[in-house]
Design brief:
Length: about 500
């Protein structure tokens, strides 16, 4: 595995329709995967391959808030376009409409043939509110008493006909419960064992898992979310964290199996310490949105052992599209930042074409959007640059920028870092502001000749500079708003 791999997320149930009606996973033309591999993609995350319960759609997928989202994304949507959340699953079997487990197995072989691995969803917090497991394994779910149901019927429900058992819907403690889900009880040992067994089965089908809301089942978070219910039922906090046990269990036999954690609330480091290979870096995404170079620079000064395990992204299925939220020019500058710092780099299907619509995950049809040729050209160029080994396996360091002249403060708009591998170097400089900005960058070029050629790979230009100038006072940089260099020297 590369130290800094590239991951490509696909909204599977929607995307597959581009290839025709009733196409199965393994029937997607191999040329499609070859092109992604040639762009330097290392892993494909097929989001939403698991079987769901269609019976939940009418019950839970037409709330006023969701209907507003549907209308905003797909103005001509119809009832049949609503296919339910891919995060409210029946169980870990591949949706028959996608071809089932056998089709996925064939696709994985195709990906491997094209030097890419397969990432699938693991949803540790909950299953569908109508999962078949509620009948076959009711003990793994969080049960409550009648008073809890009476006091909060939004969070608690009775899924079994003719039985008076009350269960909790899955939830994030800061938001109302997800009513199309049922909560797993992480303070019950057999429930943990059940999930680890499921994880083991999933690990036979793919090369890694993206773990949805991975922090929700940390002991202290689970305790804070469900304390009243679990104390009433007599459950006690386990000695060990679920992730410590689960990740060790899988990696004992599959050491290269990847664990990617969706994580927030400053719990990224905690999850990394429990064994996660990578955790989300939402902080970088948010700082890119407020166009604050100083805040981005401060974030990139964090410990390298932490940063190398972060997933950098502008887009995913939960985020607004970069072109819409950032703007045309700004999204390209942000992509250079997010795509050339250390860690895993996540790209979302449609990002390379400049798509602007954030599609709710419950919809099974996407709107037609015009290709933004300028964005497509940028990404084709950019991805072919960053697929080089120096970006995948090199050493990264943040570079200090200096004022270009007395009294000029625009240098603070500039962000710069250096990659090195086997004597090769790449210098990235981005002006993350709307105004023309200037700076100097001092580089160690002791082993270089008197005249040094700086090849700007992203802009296809060459600059000749004296060794003395590059050392002191430093390489002079002038960039217009939201422009950037990727220098090879």
């Amino acid at each position: 595995m590369h130290k800094n791999p590239n991951l490509y997320e696909i909204n599977t149930r929607v995307w597959i329709k581009r290839f025709g009606e009733n196409v199965k996973l393994h029937e997607v033309p191999e040329d499609y995967w070859l092109k992604l591999s040639e762009l330097g993609i290392d892993y494909i995350w097929l989001m939403g391959v698991w079987k769901t319960n269609e019976s939940t759609i009418d019950k839970y997928c037409f709330e006023p808030g969701l209907i507003e989202e549907y209308s905003r994304a797909l103005p001509d949507w119809k009832r049949e376009d609503v296919i339910g959340s891919p995060y409210a699953i029946d169980d870990y079997t591949v949706n028959p409409k996608l071809g089932g487990n056998e089709s996925l197995e064939e696709l994985r072989e195709i990906l491997h043939r094209n030097n890419m691995g397969l990432i699938l969803d693991f949803i540790p917090n909950h299953f569908s509110a109508e999962s078949s497991l509620i009948k076959s394994h009711p003990e793994i779910f969080l049960q409550a008493d009648e008073s809890a149901f009476e006091n909060d019927p939004h969070t608690y429900f009775k899924p079994l006909e003719n039985e008076n058992k009350i269960f909790a819907h899955g939830r994030d403690p800061f938001f109302p419960a997800w009513q199309d889900t049922i909560q797993i009880n992480y303070f019950y040992e057999p429930a943990r064992e059940f999930l680890i067994n499921r994880l083991n089965s999933i690990s036979q089908m793919c090369d890694g898992v993206r773990c949805d809301m991975a922090m929700l089942n940390l002991n202290h978070v689970f305790q804070n979310t469900w304390g009243t219910v679990i104390s009433k039922a007599g459950f006690k906090k386990p000695e060990k964290e679920f992730w410590e046990i689960a990740i060790k269990s899988i990696k004992t036999s599959k050491p290269d199996f990847l664990f990617i954690g969706e994580a927030y609330w400053d719990l990224e480091w905690t999850l990394q310490q429990l064994g996660f290979d990578f955790t989300y870096d939402k902080k970088l995404t948010d700082r890119l949105k407020i166009f604050n170079p100083s805040a981005i620079r401060a974030h990139l000064q964090a410990e390298k052992n932490y940063q190398k395990k972060l997933v950098r992204f502008l887009e995913n299925h939960d985020e607004e599209r970069a072109v819409k939220i950032l703007g045309y020019k700004q999204s390209k500058a942000a992509a250079v930042i997010a795509g050339t710092v250390m860690g895993m780099h996540l790209f979302y299907d449609g990002q390379f074409e400049g798509k602007a619509v954030k599609l709710p995950v419950q919809l099974g049809r996407e709107p037609e959007e015009k290709l933004q040729k300028g964005i497509k050209y940028f990404y084709d160029n950019f991805l072919r640059i960053i697929k080089a080994g120096i970006f995948k396996n090199g050493d990264w360091q943040l570079i200090h920028v200096f004022p270009a002249g007395e009294g000029d403060q625009t240098f603070e708009n500039m962000l710069a870092w250096l990659w090195e591998l086997n004597g090769e170097k790449r210098l990235i400089v981005v002006n993350y502001s709307s105004v023309t900005s200037y700076c100097r960058i001092k580089l160690n070029v002791e082993s270089y000749p008197h005249k040094i050629t700086f090849e700007d790979l992203i802009n296809d230009k060459f600059y000749m500079r004296n060794k003395e100038e590059v050392t002191e006072p430093g390489l002079y940089i002038k960039l217009d708003g939201y422009k950037f260099h990727i220098f090879k020297f």
